[in-house]
Amino acid sequence: MTRRFTALAVLAVVGASVELVAGRGMSLGVAWDVLGGGGDATERHILFQLRLPRLLVALCAGACLAVAGLVLQSALRNPLAGPEVTGVTPGAVLGAVTATALGLAGWDSPLAVVLAACAGGCAGAALLWLLAGRGRGDPAQTAVHGVLVSAVLGGLTAMVLLVEPGELGSVVQWLVGTTEGRVWEHWHLLWPWALLWGAAAWLLAGPLTLLRCGDDIALAAGLSARRARTLALLCAVALTAGAVAAVGALGFVGLLVPHLAVAVFGADLRRSLPGAALTGAVVVCGADAAAQLSSRLLAAALGSDRLTLPVGALTAGLGAALLLVVVRRAPNRSF
């Protein structure tokens, strides 16, 4: 187990190094020179004020989404549960966009965005909770209800866009998911939030393990299944809202990374929750680096200087393909 954590940590360092030099305006030699105290003012600004906060936000958001997904899948005993298909992510997007359209939040007030996204995520999760009968439905039924809830919340987001068309840029960023333009203010807001709710999720590792075994076993062990599940869902919603408020809706990260974490670190959530956080950080960091490299290649091929591929488009495309593979290989999997 120690070797697995070490290998993932090495991957995280490699991915972070690649992401720092993947975008335009920075090479490996220049980055090394700046880190050594050299470089001009522009190069230092690019590395320390643009690249480094973007990297840290990507790592933290990936960890948040992965932990939230594992908590949801454990609490609901549903391998298809995740922020993307349980109404949490689209609800958080709707909350953030609505608050922005009303002038209550914006990129210049990230705390208000987090609060609005958290409220929207709670509303989306509550709606699915009511429709799916408190998690008693099978995975397929919960997935269908999740798709319906996401569609409804997405339609409401579109209505907000029709009312306030000037918010198109903000809507696209939150719907697709991007780390572009993230600065130190986003990081200073995200990491305490992630640390608080991540620690709360880890403290729930024992109750979550019992919930995965079924409510009857949890009750026999003296656990209040309803209370534990409510606390777990609150942690998942809060983690998702923080990530969405920082980088938007990164598709399939919270749905697929938990499966990978459980496969690597086992079913003991005391190990798989930290493993999921590290795995999610590596996945989002690697995807962001790949998106930046792809943007450079596409821009060179098309002769465009402003072509940018958002990381959310990459995670959504690759995640959809991986989900098809998982479903075909284990169509009857359940906790």
Number of strands: 0
What is the tally of helical segments?
A: 14
Mean pLDDT: 82
| Spans where pLDDT lies below 50 across 5 or more residues | none
- Structural class, from helix and strand content? mainly alpha
Write down the overall geometry: globular
Name the beta content range. Answer: under 5%
Q: Helix amount, in percent?
A: over 70%
- How far do the termini sit from each other? 22 Å
Largest sheet: none
Gyration radius, to the nearest Å?
20 Å
**Order of secondary-structure elements:** HHHHHHHHHHHHHH
Give an overview of the whole structure:
The relative contact order is 0.17. It is built from 14 helices and no strands. The protein is globular, with a radius of gyration of 20 Å. The protein is mainly α and about 325 residues long. The two termini are about 20 Å apart.
Brief characterization of the structure:
This protein is mostly helical and 335 residues long.
Itemize the secondary structure elements and their pairings.
Blueprint lengths: L1 H21 L5 H8 L5 H36 L11 H14 L8 H22 L7 H25 L4 H9 L7 H20 L1 H9 L1 H6 L4 H23 L5 H13 L3 H34 L8 H19 L6
Helix pairs in contact: 1-3, 1-13, 3-8, 3-9, 3-11, 3-12, 3-13, 4-5, 4-6, 4-7, 4-11, 5-6, 5-11, 8-11, 12-13
Core attributes:
single chain, 335 residues, mainly alpha, 14 helices, globular
